[in-house]
Specification:
Strand 19 (376-384) and strand 20 (390-395) form a beta hairpin. Helix content is 29%, strand content 26%. It is globular, with a radius of gyration of 23 Å. Helix 10 crosses helix 11 (282-292). It has 15 helices and 25 strands. It has a nine-stranded mixed beta sheet with strand order 2-1-10-9-11-12-13-14-15. A five-stranded antiparallel beta sheet has the order 17-16-18-19-20, with no helix packed on it. The chain has a four-stranded parallel beta sheet with strand order 4-3-5-6. By secondary structure, it is α/β, with parallel strands linked by helices. Bound molecules: adenosine monophosphate. Adenosine monophosphate is lined by residues 163, 208, 276-279, 298, 300-303, 322, 378, 380, 392, 395, 401, 406. Adenosine monophosphate (AMP) is lined by residues 163, 208, 276-279, 298, 300-303, 322, 378, 380, 392, 395, 401, 406.
């Protein structure tokens, strides 16, 4: 039934013949079995096809994290279509850009936003799926029977995930069936996931970490998940005694450390804590080991490449590093003269079956970053030491990562600059004890009566909350170098202590 669909045949293999086995433990206490999950995915696929979705079409999805949303992801791939998840926090103008660029044939949104999304969806069919798992898509799916997966090969697209660009425009990273299947299989084996595992799944599913790392690895292993709608300290601590693994961003770990209920006893059944998506502080690493007896395993990846490096399962997990290139992945650090000597900082390149197919409808941008011989220029600054451990030492671009989410300064700056009374602005990240980094804006006024406190309110209308500056500061002039470039580094240094505890 699924054999001819590269990704679905693999994701379903571990649970074939054990359809009654539990997959997801849901917040209401109910359990979704593997059989129920794939049957739900078939009904979603049938509903999409009935709504006009054809192989290769994009299905844009901006919904809450529910098990039905996972069924929709699997159903989209089963129907031979391309899954395009969007952060529920995106405002309607933000969503309009993605829909205009990706031209999906179906858009699935929260019932409460049906009118506003319908207004920007163009010719696409708009259906709903709510946080309670209900909606018009689910109603249509409930009327369907089984579905034979549409044949799709390793090079066909399974998903497009948007990753913002420093020049302001987001880019759609095209991921093939083989990109996703091969990377998740590698991670399952490297991290030794089996059907005996129970993974605490508290990550969002519109991002590579929660969707492809957590969900796909669990499915490929035939493992169970404690499926949480979001980060929930109490729920994670409650689940921990019967779970075996947690995947999180560094913020998860700092927040858990802030709770006295995190003890060695509570973590006794756990075998693996994984961190990624942003740098884990060495202090967090050490504090975690002292409190729980476990050494966090840090890995590194990005939307375009899935996961590229990981600290070892057996062997030394070195704090401050992201470990070794995964099996089948090559990594090199380059400067203008070529590959640098061990220990030298340069730009990290990676190559392997994990690397994406290019940016959606951006052949020039793709050619700049994806070299003809398969190397992808990550834009991250890194060094590889003599033992082969990779360390990410900074970002070539000025990306801000706050609570595991990426904020591109240019997008925020453009909106601030458009406000009346503003001459210019600069947005950058400073260390924050809870979020890793916090977004800060400095603004130069053209009108002396400019009220900088009102800027935050203005931005709230247009930007997802995590992108809004935590502080807006008025200054007389932006620091610039002789070439006229704004010195972000100087700003970061000057305001580094803003959120110090
Ligand atoms: P995204 O595409 O949203 O997954 O973001 C990818 C970026 O997150 C990478 O290019 C890195 O800059 C950063 N990143 C991911 N994992 C790590 C890590 N373990 N340490 C430092 N930075 C990381």
């Amino acid at each position: 039934m699924y054999d001819t669909n590269h990704l679905i045949s693999r994701l379903s293999a571990a649970s074939t013949g054990r359809g009654d086995a539990p997959f997801a433990h849901l917040p209401d206490g109910s359990v979704t079995s593997f059989g129920a999950l794939f049957a739900g995915a078939e009904r979603m696929a049938a509903a999409l096809v009935q709504s006009g979705v054809r192989p290769g079409d994009r299905v844009a999805v901006q919904v809450a994290k529910t098990i039905e949303a996972i069924e929709l992801y699997l159903g989209t791939v089963m129907a031979g279509a391309v899954f395009l998840p969007l952060n529920p926090a995106y405002t309607t103008p933000e969503v309009a850009y993605f829909l205009g660029d990706a031209t999906p044939s179906v858009v699935v949104c929260d019932p409460a936003r049906l009118d506003e999304i319908s207004g920007i969806a163009g010719p696409a069919t708009v259906m709903t799926l709510g946080a309670d798992g209900r909606g018009t898509l689910r109603d249509l799916a409930d009327q369907q029977d089984g579905f034979d997966a549409v044949a799709r090969g390793p090079d066909d697209l399974a998903a497009i995930l948007y990753t913002s660009g420093t020049t302001g425009r987001s880019k759609g990273a095209m991921l093939s069936h083989a990109n996703l299947a091969s990377n998740s299989e590698t991670l399952r084996d490297y991290w030794q996931f089996t059907a005996a595992d129970t993974l605490i799944h508290a990550l969002p599913i519109f991002h590579t970490h929660g969707l492809f790392v957590a969900t796909n690895v669990a499915l490929l292993a035939g493992a169970q998940v404690v499926f949480l709608p979001g980060f929930d300290l109490d729920a994670i601590l409650t689940a921990m005694p019967r779970a075996t693994a947690l995947m999180g961003v560094p913020t998860f770990y700092t927040r858990l450390l802030g709770d006295a209920r995190l003890t060695k006893e509570r973590a006794a059944n756990m075998r693996l804590f994984i961190s990624g998506s942003a740098p884990l502080l060495v202090d967090t690493h050490e504090e975690w080991q002292a409190r729980t007896g476990h050494r966090i395993l840090e890995r590194y990846g990005m939307t375009e490449t899935n996961m590229s490096t990981s600290n070892p399962y057996d062997g030394e997990r070195r704090a401050g590093t992201v470990g070794f290139p995964l099996p089948g992945v090559e990594a090199r650090v380059m400067d203008d003269d070529g590959v640098v000597a061990p220990g030298t900082i340069g730009v990290l390149h990676v190559r392997g079956s994990n690397v994406f197919q290019g940016y959606w409808q951006m052949p020039e941008k793709t050619a700049e970053e994806l070299l003809p011989d398969g190397w992808f220029i990550t834009g991250d600054l890194a060094r590889i030491d003599a033992d082969g451990y990779v360390s990410i030492v900074g970002r070539e671009k000025d990306l801000i990562i706050t609570g595991g989410f990426n904020v591109y300064p240019k997008e925020v700056e453009s909106l601030i600059d458009d406000l009346p009374g503003v001459l210019e602005s600069a947005v950058f990240g400073v260390p924050h004890p809870d979020f890793g980094e916090a977004v800060v804006a400095v603004v130069v006024a053209s009108d002396p009566t400019l009220d900088v406190d009102a800027i935050t309110g203005e931005l709230a209308q247009q930007l997802a909350r995590y992108k809004q500056p935590k502080q807006v500061i008025r200054i007389d002039a932006l620091p610039r170098n002789t070439m006229g470039k704004v010195q972000k580094k100087a700003l970061r240094e000057e305001y580094a202590g803003l959120f110090a505890t």
